[in-house]
Please model this.
Amino acid sequence: MAKNNQGLYIAIGAIILILVVTGTLDLSGILSNFGDLGVTDGGLVDVDKQIKFHVIYKYGGAPIASKTDKFNLYDSGGENVLEANLDTDANGLITTGSPYPSGQSMYLRYEDSNDKQWWSFTVPKMNPSDAESATYNMIRLEGFTIGTYTTDSLKCANGTTIADAGTYNITNSGANPHFTYSLANTGSDNTGLMTSRDPLYDQNWDIEVYITFSGTDYEKLIIYDMAYDFTLGSTHYVGKTADAYALTLHKVGSTYKSLGTQDFSFWIDTTSTTVGTTSVTMQITVVAYGDHTYAQNHGGNFGTEAVEIAEHTVTIAG
Model:
């Protein structure tokens, strides 16, 4: 009798397999009902728990520890504060005062002097065993310590260096100067820069290299090899977005993954200027937390929370 039943089960299984393979039988509706059991997304379940953030330095891995009143939790629009003046403990952990359900989108903002960052995240689901045993829903976030950018240089194509507050003479040195501006992080290992987005003011927090031109004959200069270019009043702006990682001193063991330096090359056509009268101030400014679109639309303001990290000024004379 048992052998007969076994043969029957095998036959029924074979028929079902044929129907599924040929598309005659659709199991999706049947399988979807398992979601009613509370197990979805690969076995993860929705929870409504307090969040414990583990905030660490992206480069180096140490916790961003013992920071008092440096974090604010915002809603999904980044406008309304849900919890203010949160702290990290000695292990880089932040515990929210209220529970938050899986699927809720939020922002966390960090500011400690010139170290600033926004994180966007969605409260995750948990596996069933953790959902039953854990008090908190864990979220890991990565931050940074800003580097030191006091070493920069401006060189001509022939290798001549023009010091800050120096002069480039068109008559003596040539009408089409090619420049390379170099910036280096001379701070501690694993310091540098990261980018994020400010939802409150709807601005990118990028690393921007701005070059402005003003003074006699500024409008006669044509600048090449920059990413954006606009004029506001009597000032001509050009620039490009820097690579935050390139300007980070990232060291793993004894090996540097990033040396913390970046070069920015451009050249200027000065052939339309007037000999003997041209006197243009060229100012190179590097900012963190900048947004060049915002600058173009707000009178050259580099960003609501932009921080200058380097500056170099040269006079271009005829």
